Amino acid sequence: MSDLIAALPMYDWPEARAEVDALWAAMRDRLRAAGIEAPDALCRRNGDMPAVPGGIRDASGAVVAPDPATLPPDEFDLPTLWRHPDLLLAQTCWGPMNETGLRDLVRVVAQPDYSDVPGGAEVFYSSAILMRADDSGAPASDVAPPPDGTARLPLEAMRGRRLAFNEKHSMSGWLALLADLRAAGGDVAMLGGLMATGGHRASMQAVAQGRADVCAVDCRSLALAQRFEPETARLRVAGWTARRLGLPLICARSPGHPVPAIADAVRQALAAGRPAA
After folding, report:
1. What is the pLDDT of residue 254?
2. What is the 3-state secondary structure (H, E, C) of 62-88?
3. What was the pLDDT predicted at 85?
4. Do 112 and 270 contact (CB within 8 A), yes or no?
5. Which candidate, 13, 11, 50, 43, places its Cα nearest to that of 28?
6. Rounded to an integer, what distance in angstroms lies between the CA atom of residue 70 and that of residue 47?
7. Which 8-state DSSP code applies to residue 105?
8. Residues 181-196: tens digit of each pLDDT
9. Strands 194-196 and 244-245
10. Which residues of the chain have pLDDT under 50?
């Protein structure tokens, strides 16, 4: 049995779990064909991660994440997952990669394709800016993503509105929107407040239910919501952030990891199936 772990948590909605598992099965089989001991099933909780007594350390010996065995077993701490020394494969986000030093602890092995959803173009994605359809500032119909991938922000409609966002290390939910606002001459100061929700689905629900007024979610999360989240019917796409590099697939920066073989197997699985989980 493999001691390595894998997770595809970023689009692992309960309703899409069978699809995520099927994608992992395709990756796992190709990894095993390459001689890599891939685990049977995905890691989905802290209790699924092997213990690391004393905490997870970087190359200098500094603790960079807690021992998973000390965390609530039924929760899922993604920063700990991403730093686990036994990580064979996981999705992450360029926000944590660039903002928290994660890129120094892992290797990028693949970039999934987003071309199958509006707002995606090969390995790049945009975030949809969502408002309630009955908001006086919302457009009469959904705004299409600009073909050239530039930002299209509803600046006046956003002024004074409360923003729901997943968390401040998120590229799609916070960093991309903040950068595009500043490039357009705006800033968060123009908003009517902030609400951290912990996830894109929760942000969309907050806007739909009137607890917030606007949010930004990546185009694949929006596509999932349009399939599985009834509250989405109450939302309107009011604009888009500029295209940015989508979620990377990573492995631990471990001397024992055959990174080229992992990358080849993962890319083959992505190419054989749909672009991303």
Report:
1. 87
2. CEEECCHHHCCCCCCCHHHHHHCCCEE
3. 96
4. yes
5. 43
6. 9
7. T
8. 999 999 999 999 999 9
9. unpaired
10. 1, 275-277
Can you tell me the distance from the alpha carbon of 185 to that of 153, in angstroms, rounded to the nearest whole number? 11
pLDDT of residue 276: 38
CA distance 73 to 76: 8
Which burial class, exposed, middle or buried, applies to 31 when counting CB atoms under 10 A from its CB (0-12, 13-18, 19+)? Answer: buried
User: In whole angstroms, what is the distance from residue 207 CA to residue 233 CA?
Assistant: 12
pLDDT for position 53 = 97
Q: Which whole-number Å values give the CA distances from 233 to 49, 74, 208, 222, 229, in the listed order?
A: 37, 31, 8, 11, 8
Give the model's pLDDT for residue 265.
96
Nearest to 5 by CA among 85, 76, 93, 96: 85
Ranges of H-type helices in 122-257 = 155-158, 176-183, 200-208, 219-228
Q: What is the pLDDT of residue 1?
A: 45
DSSP class per residue in 211-246: S-SEEEEEHHHHHHHHHH-GGGGGEEEEEEPPPEE-
